[in-house]
Specification:
The chain is mainly α and about 70 residues long. The chain is built from 2 helices and no strands.
Length: about 70
């Protein structure tokens, strides 16, 4: 079984790390960052129908009447 032969592990792991390091560097160097990030004001919408109480009522175990 070749997995149990640990003589090639160091070379395999080292080559993998070097390859990933080079790939990540090229990916990060090719990324173009935006020049100016200006804040955009969000559009606020007013809803005409408010929440109805039957949908916002919470039932906590301690607030229920005792039986």
């Amino acid at each position: 079984m070749p997995q149990l032969d640990t003589t090639t592990w160091f070379i395999t792991i080292l080559s993998m790390l070097i390859t990933l390091f080079i790939l990540f560097q090229t990916k990060l160097l090719n990324y173009t960052y935006p020049l100016n990030a200006l804040p955009i004001s969000p559009n606020v919408t007013n809803h005409l129908t408010p929440w109805k109480m039957k949908w916002t009522k919470t039932y906590l175990p301690l607030s229920l009447p005792l039986q």
